[in-house]
Every structure is written in structure tokens, then in C-alpha cells.
Amino acid sequence: MAQAHGYGGLNLRTLADLVGIKAASLYHHFPSKADLATAVARRYWEDAAAGLDAIAAKVADPAERLRKFPGTFRLALENDNRMCMCSYMTAESDDLPGIVKVEIERFNEVNIAWLAKTLVETGVPTRDARKRAHAIFAAVAGAQLMARGRGDVKVYDTLIRAYQASGLIPS
Amino acid sequence: MAQAHGYGGLNLRTLADLVGIKAASLYHHFPSKADLATAVARRYWEDAAAGLDAIAAKVADPAERLRKFPGTFRLALENDNRMCMCSYMTAESDDLPGIVKVEIERFNEVNIAWLAKTLVETGVPTRDARKRAHAIFAAVAGAQLMARGRGDVKVYDTLIRAYQASGLIPS
DNA sequence: ACCTGAACACCGTTCAAGT
DNA sequence: ACCTGAACACCGTTCAAGT
Predict the structure, then answer these.
(1) Nearest-CA neighbor of B119 among B48, B53, B62?
(2) Interior angle at CA B69, CA B66 and CA B74, nearest 5
(3) Whereabouts does the entry annotate DNA binding, in residue ranges (chains A, B) (predicted)?
(4) What is the pTM of this model?
(5) Which residues of B, range 50-89, sit inside 8 Å of A by Cβ?
(6) CB count, 10 Å around CB of A110?
(7) How far is the C-alpha of A51 from the C-alpha of A59, rounded, in Å?
(8) Distance of alpha carbon B31 from alpha carbon B29, whole angstroms
(9) Distance from CA of B112 to the nearest CA of A (A)
(10) Which of A65, A132, A133, A156 has its CA at a distance of 20 to 30 angstroms from the CA of residue B38?
(11) CATH of region A40-166
(12) pLDDT for A88-146, tens place per residue?
């Protein structure tokens, strides 16, 4: 729900229905919608971190690992044209409770740190790696947003290939 | 309001207050919230198109025009850390009325077409220009989103410079 | 032609009351 | 410990009634 409708569109009554209880009962498990969203967002970046670690463990070549990164953002689009929950909630910044925002920023940090570390392994100077990682991350998020708007994963693939052709993402 | 809170966060009662009438009275000017948002979105891309045309009229060098493009997306951030209304509403895709979506896509088209045309003038082959334009647009939108999340325009400037350093945007 | 109050079905949230 | 119905102030929207 958060990946398709954001924080604002996350409906407690619908959510309670899916779980088989009443909306009021949710408050026995989470003190508020903000706390529920915080738990969701925390699990979200934890899962992302685990996914990136799995790539790092399986793929020896750092350049090949970088090439695999856009695949992690592709999954959401494959799944009913959804998008990164954190990109969505970043748009919602002004209306997002502070405790949720903290977890969102953690997701960004996890991704950027992983990219920077991997870039260094491919020979990018340490002092350039972080900026470059940030740029790759922002561009990938933008590509995902565009593809969602058009409702077409192929748009995403084309954009990623254009990033590679321009030299932003090593290919 | 749309640039800060999106379509879902666009509140008719607050909006009516700002104009000095009651929410019910809005329905005398627009049949529904969807129609109001459509009018807003249309004006939004019309203004964007005019702004890009103004750059084209004033700046002779196409490479210099391309360098000026990120400035158009910087304005929203300068204005109370707001973002592109169309990026926000693209995230809201699943809950966005079709008539609004049409205007959003028009905004993307206006920007991409302008970029493609300008790229061709700098010597980029016509058949590559559109993909490249799309990539620049997506990356700039992503950078704006990141900067909004951090609430810091300097993040945007750093990202744009990273795009230029990588060769995505001509510098 | 334009505005309004009152009502509708929806939200998140609270709380007293149940098991 | 966990769940519930009923209520609260809020949404978009409708409509009969006003000028």
C-alpha cells in the first residue's frame, strides 16, 4: 500500500480489513499511523540492505555489482507498477511525521553507502565516490518515477541504458 | 499546495479559505477536484513551456541553454522546498484521475521535447537526442526529489554538478 | 451567476466496553 | 492481551436554499 499510495494513501481501515481486524484494533499493535509507517519503513531499508549484501556476497566483480544495482529498483515496477516507498514518501516530506522521515533517510544512506563502497572497489577515488554514488541513486530513482508514470518497465530499462551510455553508471 | 502536498493533499476547504469562499462554492467554478487539478496542471505546463521558450529566445548558444535547464527545476526548491508538481503527481499515479494524468504527461513531453531539440542543436544525432533528453529529465527530477528530502538546495546543485562531471548533462 | 449551511460517506483516532 | 462499536473532527461532494 505504501509503495502504491504513499503515506497519505495508506488507509488504516483497508489495512485492518486485509489483516482481518477492525481499524480500532490496529491501535493495540501500533500507537499511531506514524508508528506503523515507521515500522514498515524500517523493515523496508533492512530488506534493501540485506538484498544489497546478497549481491555483494554473490558477485565478485565490483563493476558487475554496480550493473546489478538498477535491478533492485526494477522489482517495484515489475510488481504492479509500484515504486520505491522512500521516493514516494520523500515527495510527501512536508506531511511526513519526523519518526518516519528518519527511516526514509536511512534507506537513502544504505543505498548510497553501498554504491560508494562499490565504486571505490572499481577504482573511483574515495573522495569522488560518495558524490557519484548519490548521483547514481538520484538518477535511478528519477528513472523509476518516469517509468511508473508511463506504466511501462521498458521506459525504465531504456533510461538506465541511457545513463550507462552517458557514463553516469559504469557499463 | 499541489507542489507541497500533491493531489491527495490538495485540500478544498483550505483552498476555499485562501480564496475567501466556502468549499461548496468551489463547485460553482470547477465541477470537481479532478477538474480543478486539471486546470492547475494545464497552466503548470503552459508556464513551463513559456519559461523554456524564454530561455531559447534569450540564449543563442544551445550548450548554454542546456546548462540553464536545471535552473528551472531549482526554482521549486528555492520556493519553500517545494518540488515539481508533476513529479509529485507521477508518484500519485494510481490515485490520479485520468484527466489530470494527461496534463502531467504533457509537462514531461514539453520538457523532453525542448531538451531533445536543444541537444540536436549541440550536435547530438537526432536518433539519440530523445533518449538522452529523457535521461536528463529523469535525472534532474530525481535530483530535485533528493534535495527536497534533505531540505537543502545545495544537495541539488551538487547532484547537477555530478551529472555534468559524468557527462550526462553537457557542461 | 455565485454563494451558503447542512448533510453524506469517508478518513485517523479515541475510548469505554467487551472477551 | 486483544478486539469492538460508537463517537470525534476531519475529508470530497451534493443539494436545496438563499442573494
Answers:
(1) B62
(2) 150
(3) 11-30
(4) 0.96
(5) 81, 83, 87-88
(6) 20
(7) 12
(8) 7
(9) 12
(10) A156
(11) 1.10.357.10
(12) 999 999 999 999 999 999 999 999 999 999 999 999 999 999 999 999 999 999 999 99
Euclidean distance between CA atoms B51 and B20, whole angstroms:
30
Rg (CA), chain B: 17
pLDDT tens by residue, B55-86: 999 999 999 999 999 999 999 999 999 999 99
**How close does chain A come to B163, measured CA to CA in Å?**
7
Question: Which nucleotides of chain D does any protein CB come within 7 A of?
Answer: 1-6, 10-16
Question: Touching check for A4 and chain B: CB below 8 Å?
Answer: yes
The amino acid that residue A56 corresponds to is: A
Residue B33 has a pLDDT of 94
pLDDT of B171 above 90: no
DSSP state of B95: G
At A27, the pLDDT band (50, 70, 90 cuts) reads very high
Minimum CA–C1' distance nucleotide for A28: D2
Cα torsion through B168, A146, B42, B6, rounded to 10:
-110
Q: Which amino acid, one-letter code, is at A110?
A: V
Is the pLDDT assigned to residue B90 strictly greater than 90?
yes
| For chain A, domain boundaries | 40-166
User: Under a CB-based contact definition with an 8 Å cutoff, are residues B10 and B33 in contact?
Assistant: yes
Give the position of cell 535521461: B135
